[in-house]
């Protein structure tokens, strides 16, 4: 599959980079706020502009700081994005005019081999005229005058990008989601500072995500396309999720909502725990949310290389999971170290196996044979002396596996018997610990009215 050409958006903080990113991908994927420095990691998406398709990369605001500081590490990510792009959009704020930091960025970009397109954003109305004139001095020619918020000037942007993005290759259609060859959509979730971004970097073999001792560095959910042993993976790093009562800041609320949105679109979710802290109630709440959404779940114990009394810790976490996640028994528990790379192949192998079970569709004959055996081994109760007749079962969908059982008086079936059927399905039909949905339905009584 030929790759799409890549466009990076660069500029100082708060000039509208994420707003333009959202405009081009057609969705509100990047977090947007009035305060500067919201975006920290590179965020990528598929952009469409008047029939032109390309990969767009939103970057952190470029700031001149020490490379070891958080802003400095953010700047390194921006520089890497520009170096790997086919063309970069250099955004300036037409209303604010050119400031010293714009001039500093321009000096850096002039030394880059990547073609640069200057864009004067927030150019609607007459308030931006002076800033547009000032931007000519940056040395990149006439700016594209744009309003990312209102969508003005996109035709001019198309004309500026077209010479850099025209390709002879055709991009093949991606496989359907239920095709085993389709990319595995794998989200990494957990509390702040569990090591999610460090794990993603270790998996990719590069410093793709900004990491550090500060909690809550990641704000957006960042999706990265990658391959493991020749199999495509879409890896999603998410913001840390704290207890709801502790989340007061508007930006953190947006970050947590974005992480939950990423869970909704994942196939397999890895809940990363900090082995030095063990299992906490917030971890169980996150796991419960993942299972409620019908996603396949894997638990990974990170920082295993520095865990104390590992055998006792592993058994304790396993027992707590068995008690706290009673609705799904046997969720895979894997020990990893994002620092050393231990357990990563085992984790990815388990993720593919879990997706296979999550996507499984049971042949009708096999399903009905299981149904007969399950009822024969443990017949349904007869509340009030009236038998509950269970006639047949059908699978209505996969991902997650969902079944409907038809019969008479099934509305009186106790929850314990429903659990028996679901657990029997998991054990006998190869679903393991993935969520299984079961609905009971009685035929309509034609004389009921």
From TrEMBL:
SMART domains: AAA. The keyword Iron does not apply. Keywords: GTP-binding, Nucleotide-binding, Repeat, Ribosome biogenesis. HAMAP family: GTPase_Der. Belongs to the TRAFAC class TrmE-Era-EngA-EngB-Septin-like GTPase superfamily. EngA (Der) GTPase family. GTPase that plays an essential role in the late steps of ribosome biogenesis. Associates with the 50S ribosomal subunit. This is GTPase Der. The lineage of its organism: Bacteria, Pseudomonadati, Pseudomonadota, Alphaproteobacteria, Sphingomonadales. The gene is der.
